């Protein structure tokens, strides 16, 4: 347990069997209410750590309002614990609605159909390969919408609800302009990079949206970003500039991997670019890692389609891509 600012605390919740390892949970203690940000997985290990952290603060679950920054199961898995205790649960509308859709089988039927378009071997991925399905909420949440631009008061702090879309379509953050601090969750991480995946045609060019989010945050007078994995970000501008550069380099790497006039599937491209996964070749990737890798490659190809560098066509219910420009800039 660490007090990182006046009445703002953080502690770790374990995320077993994942490369992320743990979640940084944040708590603001106020006279009128206490607010906790995100929860950890709906797994015994996460629940034990969460309850222990709450106990160390001299509080109980019922003493909190819960803010869900985005829909991922490592952030929302224990939300039902707070709902059952009668707590207010807050979320942005886009991710809140998606989170509730994900509690249904019909969402995952649609998801599997969409994902098949960029999986070369039909049926090689099942919904069980996605931890979002395995660890999804068992039922829909009755949440209170946090509207973009509205103010959210906790103790001596006044936050503005920010649209941080990119990591998910409706990722939100809470920004305190007076103190130059923001609860930014998975928008900016260090030293790892946030996963930017493809969310389908309903959310076109999600990577472009993410880069726009970073550019808008760079314009703020930020001193600290409370990231929910790894380190608290104490060099916001530099880290965001590094992330933008990382994605530009990734986009150029994809263009360099494609020969003009030749068509590629998403998996073809994924196999030709570099990954920080300790395996000898693409064929050795664990299924769950392949799942995330192809989603990330797809988001970058979608960006290149929207920027006019790559053309896309659908053939036999599979996406194919052809390079038409060699250089990103």
Automatic annotation (TrEMBL):
InterPro entries: Metallo-B-lactamas, RibonucZ/Hydroxyglut_hydro, Sec-metab_biosynth-thioest, WH-like_DNA-bd_sf. Pfam families: Lactamase_B (PF00753). It comes from the Bacteria. Residues 22-229 form the Metallo-beta-lactamase domain. PANTHER family: ENDORIBONUCLEASE LACTB2, METALLO-BETA-LACTAMASE SUPERFAMILY POTEIN. This is MBL fold metallo-hydrolase. It comes from Facklamia lactis.
